[in-house]
Amino acid sequence: MFFVEVVLPLSLAKTFTYRVSEAEFHFIKKGMRVVVPFGKSKMYTALVLDLHQNEPNLYEAKEIDQILDERPIATEIQIKHWLWIADYYMCSIGDVYRGAFPSGLLLESETVISNKPETIVNDSELSDDEFLVYEALHHQSSLRVQDITSILNKKNIFPVLQKMIAKDIIVLEEEIKETYKPKLIRYVKLHSKYESDNGLNELLEELKSAKKQKEIVLAFFQLKASEKKPVTVKKLTEFSNVSAAVVKALVEKEIFEEYLLQQDRIVYSGEKTDKQLQLSQPQEKAFLEIKECFAAKEVCLLHGVTSSGKTEIYIKLIEEYLITGKQVLYLLPEIALTTQLVSRLRLHFGDKVAVFHSKYSNNERVEVWKQTLENSSKAQIIIGARSALFLPFSNLGLLIVDEEHEQTFKQTDPAPRYHARDAAIVLANFYKAKVLLGSATPSIETYYNTQAGKYGLVTLSERYNNVRMPDIVLVDLKDKHFRKRMTGHFSDVLIEEITEALSLGEQVILFQNRRGYSPIIECLTCGHVPHCQQCDVSLTFHKHKNQLRCHYCGYSIAKPTNCHACSSIDLTTKGFGTEQIEQELSSIFPNAKTARMDQDTTRGKFGFEKIIDTFKNREVDILVGTQMLAKGLDFDNVSLVGIMNADNMLHHPDFRAFERSYQMMTQVAGRAGRSEKQGKVIIQTYNPNHNTIQQVTTHNYTGMYKEQLYDRQIYKYPPYFRIIKLTLKHRDFDKLKEGSMWLYQVLSQNLGMPVLGPEEPAISRIRNEYIRSILIKIPHSQHLGNTKKTIQKMLNSFEAVAQYRAIKVVINVDFY
Ligand code: ADP
Ligand code: ZN
Ligand code: ZN
Fold first, then answer.
1. Fewer CB within 10 Å of terminal CB in the chain, N or C?
2. Are both 144 and 242 inside the same structural domain?
3. Candidates 280, 307, 462, 631: which one to mutate for ligand 1, based on the most atoms within 8 Å of Cβ?
């Protein structure tokens, strides 16, 4: 008898055994997908992990339904990596499989599909089955795969649907909510008939009498020569000071050709610059040191201050790996950052750059998946957020993790709760590839690893072009309030500096790490504060929408005019967010153009890109925003950064609060003065003497590192201890309390290491579920694998207690 061992896209810890025929056994390879029945009547796309002849003894193996692939679409290294993730982060292999595959490759009987409205379908090109599905979807806007099974009266219809997805006729329901429409940019080039050496002369001859048009052609060449990159219509019209209509006329006359370019999509048809990248001397030195370091070590940290030109060093390094035919993976902490980076990389590498991220449609993701697997020239460099780590690389040589300190590299929900930086290092190990971590503010863990000799360290301590580090000025809010030097939340110093920057035509960034107008509305008569009905938090006031909103569950109500408790109309706000800052700006600087960048304004499809573009194009003078501003953006005209209030970051109840505050402030400050002039940063705070703030002011990373490291050792935190956080949730407060106490006791009795809790977190109820957490601190002297096994055993026995079974337990290894 012949069997395959498969993983299902479900949260099940086990793999499952299915029967195959002898012929199938010889055809199937590890990494191919098969359709299998599961449960009473469900069908799933499963992945073959192994082939064997051992009959399972606990259940009778069912037969597979169908083989979906002709060749493996996942690699053995990839599967090995998934197994490592499941084991290390204590989740099921099914969780990893489901998270790794684009859902278009993972059809199951519950999947809901619809027709794709934009696609024009030619009936004659459809097979009979495809036609039936297409027809059925005209009568009912969406159908479950299960329903289609009965329409077609066939057991397995996955291959039919897969073809229809590939033809862009149908889409998965989940996609409809967020289909990614890449932004198109218009470019012009000289018409191909003038491409010969003498072409330009001929053209100028032709245009002898058309003075205006001749000027535009010359302007085009000037632009092309100075910028060494494709010329956009926008640039050309601005530069030659004509309207777009004139350019259009030239296109119609076949002097120019117009073409569209997607800013960060998979297709690329533009030109790349032949400009050789010229590293500055400090960059060159760092570059050589990195290569030297790679001769001896697998991982190297590039600790380069903000605007030191790390990206250019990455580019130079990527060049070397591409020459040897290797693939390069470039991980970013945030999808929104890809646009800026992709444009920069495409200038050098043209169409060798592929982007993989969750906002792309299934087809696009599947395309990159296949290109990666085939080591296609179109996917030599893959840029993505953390999930790009799951692609089927065939020849990976280099992994770059930019802004490695960012906490978004750690996935919180759902499982697998992996850290992309750490998982990248493990993956590199499997491929014998190298990892370059980059940051201006490395995480304590990473820096510790360099000090311990585990990773190499290369430091770049000056900015590119010899620009000086920004000058950081502290403003004592207590003193300013006392002396009545505040206008709203702006100190006189900040107002003065903004006024000056604006008068010089420079731009300003203001940072406040909280969105909305104010986090609290309070009744002045009775002190009542409106709270969310389902969560243990106050409702945030959003003035623009005149709403009170819960930032945890989305619940909202219209802003009350009277207190809910005593009907008084004396309501006041407490605390402030970006919305309030923007409003104050409009009265203090009525002539300045302002914009806001936070979750509320960037929600739309291109919200983020649009704001960045308008700011980059200097259509906005002052940009107010949350932490989104701290993530590696490159603006060349910002001379002033204001941090409205440094204190609420510092007071976060979290052992990483000081480290994070340092990183956040340093990164935001780093947006100032990136091109020529030294930038200025104003930090408003009630605690100007706080160590962390002093360290930011003096650019003293090492000071911050040493102080935090000392605390981490004393209080038993990473890098000295590994942390596993268990979060327990249940709707019944008493049951949760009892259950978490039970689990805590069992763990602390059996583990022989610090176990803290069960603690009620600052927000102890979300969506009507109460929350408790338990923190396990594992010293390096203890075997990590064995400890996890013991924890798993305790969790199993916890689940075996009938009255606790309904309590959800979330395991977060290396909690961030
Ligand atoms: P970092 O990532 O270290 O903050 P960037 O790589 O964004 O810094 O570089 C900062 C700015 O300096 C960018 O605008 C970049 O184009 C410019 N720059 C850096 N290195 C070079 C170089 N070798 N040649 C030309 N421009 C450079
Ligand atoms: Zn009241
Ligand atoms: Zn809520």
1. N
2. no
3. 307
Ligand 1 atom at shortest distance from the alpha carbon of 283? 23
Are 504 and 643 members of one domain? yes
Which residue among 464, 468, 676 is best mutated to probe the pocket of ligand 1, counting the most ligand atoms within 8 A of its Cβ?
464
69 in a domain, yes or no? yes
Task: Report residues near ion ligand 3: CB below 5 Å.
Answer: 532, 534-535, 550, 552-553, 555
What average pLDDT is seen over the chain?
89
Atom of ligand 1 nearest to the CA of 306: 4
For 762-800, the pLDDT digits (tens) are 889 999 999 999 999 999 999 999 999 999 999 999 999
Reported as a single tens digit per residue, the pLDDT across 118-165 is: 777 787 888 888 888 888 888 877 888 878 888 888 777 888 888 888
Is 266 among the domain residues?
no
* Domain presence at residue 624: yes
Distance 767 CA to ligand 3 centre (A): 6
In angstroms, the Cα distances linking 754 to 247, 643, 724, 785 are: 71, 38, 11, 17
Domain with 145, as residue range(s), is: 109-176
How do residues 359-390 score in pLDDT, each as one tens digit?
A: 777 778 888 998 999 998 889 999 999 999 99
Q: pTM for the complete prediction?
A: 0.84
Question: Residue 216 — pLDDT band, cuts 50, 70, 90?
Answer: confident
Tokens representing 531 are 């709270």
CA distance 613 to 597: 12
Rounded Cα distance between 668 and 643, Å, is: 8
Q: Kindly identify the ligand whose nearest atom is closest to the C-alpha of 554.
A: 3
Over pLDDT 90: what percentage of the chain? 62
Residue nearest to atom 14 of ligand 1 (CA): 634
Q: How do beta strands 638-643 and 680-685 pair?
A: parallel
CB 669 within 8 A of CB 642: no
